[in-house]
## 1
Amino acid sequence: MRPWEKRGYAPVISGVANSNAKITISQNGYVLSSQVVPAGAYQLKNIAPVSNGNITVTVEESDGTKTVRYYPVATLSSLLRTDEINYNIAIGEKETVGKRENSLFFLGAFDYGLTNVTVHAAGILHNNYKSAALGMSKDFGRFGAMSFTANTAVSVFQKQTPTAPEVRQSGISYSLQYANSLTDNTNLQLLAYRYTGKDYVDFNEFNSNALYHRSNRKERYETILSQSF
């Protein structure tokens, strides 16, 4: 199990210490990390999870000199720390209107954290349904955090009579999310947009025994603001 202090996103804090120095990292009055580093370049990775807003980094040198720097940070739930890996694998039988189909499905997802960037990949395999997704999440500092994901799916609907042809359709869907700190007390937690193209079918809506699934293009917007006092 991942330790609590490594759950959630936190950026890599780097710099150069002129001597043995104590580095304290805080946000909104809470200390996230405090440690002593030797003279020279340093990189701090194991700090507690952060929220939207500025991080304060205080460097206290051995002679008592203090340097304070501010790092603007924005985060989304899809962001991972540098070199962190998340993966998910599942095998099961799809249930349609309370009944299980006789074919298995396989689901796989993989996320990898780079410096201020996380890449995402996922896929679903089923006898009559296949989908793939690619995405990326990026921390832009004071400009906020953004994620983009593109999905494509191919659905095959069973013959309704022995002589009828199978119905095959494919479509695309993509989503965009943005988060930022507007002021010290106001966060734009989530600005989400999703586009679903014609003939795109989510796996949870897919029923291979249906004649077909015809849907029009859909667009959805969502905004969440939070205010702290």
Note: The CA atoms of residues 192 and 222 lie 5 Å apart.
## 2
Amino acid sequence: METSPTELSIVSKLSRKMLAIANNANEGNQKERRGALLHFVDWLHFKPVRVMILSLFFVHICASTYLCTQVNTDFDMENLYLKRSPLTEISRKMQKFVLEESFVVNFALESMPSFEDPAVRERFAMMIHDLENIPLFGMGEKGTTLWTKEYELAISFWGEDDGLWQPEELLKNYKEYGLDRKFITTTYVPLRGSSIAQFLFSG
């Protein structure tokens, strides 16, 4: 069946009218949305509204700052569980008998003490003793990892000999006794050879 030119013209006019109606509807919706947004922006610019928003902002900042000062910073494993959790008591016992709530602190001596001098060795030993026995925090001798203790034990076979503490002899014996090299750094001095320049220990 063939369509006459008159029918095509009518269909074309109807299509244009429908498109025009749809466009008008879209423009109307956009104007309504834009109008509502502009009304909201105008409302925000009212002085009482601005004062209220700023007041709420400052109240929020003050409340947040205050609550931050109330945070319990005494963190331990018990804080990981609910107050009535059965794991709380288990955690408390584990900290007391296993972990003892200790913290490992690493120390570094930038310059090697003159350990060939017995008075220096004695002063250093007293310092370590005081460190190991700090009230509430010290764990005694078992809490310190210090290579000089191992060295003293290793050379005790030879008896007291200050020559074993001479810088060059000290490094030589340190290597021969298989002590851990991670605790020391060495330096080379012409005519004297290598020696320990710095060392680390933890307690």
Note: Residues 5-44 form the longest helix (40 residues).
## 3
Amino acid sequence: MLKDQLIHSLLKEEQILQNKITVVGVGALGMACAIGILMKDLAGELALVDVMEDKLKGEMMDLQHGSLFLRTPKIVSGKDYTLLIVSNPVDIFDL
């Protein structure tokens, strides 16, 4: 095709991750794990689960604000453990 002959891409097309990781608990350790997951581009979706809804919402909003500069397209949160469906839960407990 003529377009392919005339235009050469300087950057490689990046693969979009299709996996989901859930972090249960948004204490210091849970948030450290969440930030590490985002910084290393390990998931296409990050889900946060905790029973403290106010703290959960605040942490999610902070991550969403900072994720404008990262590749993870979706960050969700909730107190309902159904977010674990089709997920790779991070098995670290923040007590």
Note: DSSP finds three helices and four strands in the chain.
## 4
Amino acid sequence: LVQEAFIRVTRHLHRFDTTKKFSTWVYTIASNLSKNELRNRSRSPLVLFQRLTGNWADDQRPLQFEDHSMRPDDLYRKRFLRRLVEDTVKELPEHHQLVFRLRELEGKSYEEISEITGVNLGTVKSRLHRARNSFAQRIEPLLN
């Protein structure tokens, strides 16, 4: 948060009113960032999936759970989220489960998935697209 506060201060320095106290302005920025962070942490990390279909870029892994936070509430949320994802993936057809797991949970490339599954690249992409859509449709009601 401190780093983000300094970034915002330098980015918006041109907005600083020189008739006011600089330290108060910096404190306000840091305070607002802290409030936003607390608000975001109080929400379930499941909000990640509310805009799921827009987050399927080739280099994004929206379903990674690696986080080194040791806070009990964060650990609980991650366990809950992991269980929810696993249960939802199990509902997918088997051939969709496989490509979804390989790509979204293990981070394999399309080419690697094609090699592992023995199907052509176009089929991998098609199955993954269908698996993602099906996953998003199945998990969305569980998040509301």
Note: The chain has a mean pLDDT of 79.
